[in-house]
Write a structure and sequence with these properties.
homodimer, 203 residues, alpha+beta, six-stranded mixed sheet, two-stranded antiparallel sheet, 6 helices, 12 strands, 33% helix, disordered N terminus
Chain lengths: 203, 203
Amino acid sequence: MRELIQYPNGIKREINNHQVAKETNFANRGMDFERAINDSNDYYLSRRIAVIHKKPTPVQVVKVDYPKRSRAKITEAYYRHASTTDYSGVYRGYYIDFEAKETKQKKSFPLKNFHPHQIEHMSRVIEQDGICFVLLYFASLDDCYLLEAKYLIPYFDCNQETRKSIPLSFIVEFGFQIEFEVKPRIPFLKVVDGLIKGGKENS
Amino acid sequence: MRELIQYPNGIKREINNHQVAKETNFANRGMDFERAINDSNDYYLSRRIAVIHKKPTPVQVVKVDYPKRSRAKITEAYYRHASTTDYSGVYRGYYIDFEAKETKQKKSFPLKNFHPHQIEHMSRVIEQDGICFVLLYFASLDDCYLLEAKYLIPYFDCNQETRKSIPLSFIVEFGFQIEFEVKPRIPFLKVVDGLIKGGKENS
């Protein structure tokens, strides 16, 4: 019982009615990586470790009906491209900002997953001393990496015309692999702890 | 040529077709306070002073059509209540988080402008050492105040059952009045500079 939903970026993602059965493994399954991140953020929030939320998908509302005695009903609207990254929040006084993307490829990560205005946003965040990165999930390998935006941005700027993707070897060299756990499922703040510590030692 | 739009929180806001004429003064005009804040954030962003964005209004999508050769069209959706504040971002390494609200009352600010889950969110942000506040606009007086969440939260928690609003005198005593300028229109980061400086002096 699956249906395909066309998302704003044109990626088709599978929705499975038997969501429960999928909870334990999110390899090869479109929405489960996002779900695993949201679960991790819920965990961090409930344990008062960090406050990180996914921004709502921006929607351009064209028509709204106001039926009597019931709530406003939007009858025509369209998805818009996000002008920022999807996730942001605060952790130990630090501003956290990231985008999460996945690919089915095994040797490289397609640059088309990122929009130029998102890259621009990441540059601005770094200028303000925010902690900014991408979480890259290789679904076929079931591997997840955290790559700081400071490595992604120059790669994107220099190569978007000529190369279409970031080689896995680049991500392995400059990024951090995240081992999955039970709680939270994607413990990315462990890597952030290292970034914070490294930043202080370097300054 | 005005029309009334019913927003999710039940507040009716006026939309004026002659938006340009309203730009210079936003007293007594519903949407202009929000616009003035957005303009201020645009200014801060364009000058590379801060990266602060309004989060998209959350929408629960129920039905989507996929017409051939055109983009996905949402045909049934509903507004949802935001679970966080409307604005967040980063400034000089600090996480900034705030909500902006206005009233036509002259002597107090109604507490019904804030939802318990927003107050809860503000508490979590403060725990993580984020800078959290509300911008309160008294439309009839054309006065704007910044009140730190640390003063709003206990007031809300203690008084939401008994009192329905925060007296202006409380806001004047514990908040900071913001004088309007041309660029940016609502220079709230001036107050934030003071909070950062004060915080460092106190620590």
